[in-house]
Amino acid sequence: MTAERNTRTTQSAFSTQRPRTTQVTRRTQAERDAMTVEIGFALATGALLGGAVFLLFALPVLFGALTGGAASGLLGVGATAAGVAFVVRVARVLWRFGERAQRHP
Fold first, then answer.
1. Are 90 and 43 within 8 A, CB to CB?
2. pLDDT tens digit string along 61-75?
3. Helices 68-103 + 29-62 axis angle, to 10
4. Taking a C-beta distance cutoff of 8 angstroms, is the pair 73, 56 a contact?
5. d(CA 31, CA 43)
6. Which long-range contacts (CB under 8 A, 24 or more apart) does 76-84 make?
């Protein structure tokens, strides 16, 4: 009886069958196209938002209200804020797309 139990344990431990919970499904062409469009939309709107945020910080420098170290500091803060806005926008758009895709299979 012990040998039979050991054989069953060995067979199940080295089984090549996939567990039922990790089934891999292939995406259709329409799903792949939708993801491509969504990525493009996320990148485009992220770039626009980042550019607008940078421009908001750069306007005082462009109009000559600030010079020297203050101008450099403001441009640095603007570039950082623009980068953060870009990343947040792209992540938010793609996250929401993933949630919609899961709700509507």
1. yes
2. 999 887 889 999 999
3. 160
4. no
5. 18
6. 78/53, 78/54, 79/54, 81/53, 81/54, 81/57, 82/50, 82/51, 82/53, 82/54, 82/57, 83/50
Residue type, 30: A
Predicted structure pTM score: 0.70
Close Cβ partners of 74 (under 8 Å, ≥ 6 residues apart): 57, 58, 60, 61, 66
| Residue in the structure block whose two tokens are 């196209």 | 33
- Note the residue count of the chain: 105
For 31-61, how does the pLDDT look when each residue is reduced to its tens digit (9 = 90+)? 889 899 999 999 999 999 999 999 999 999 9
Amino acid type, 2: T
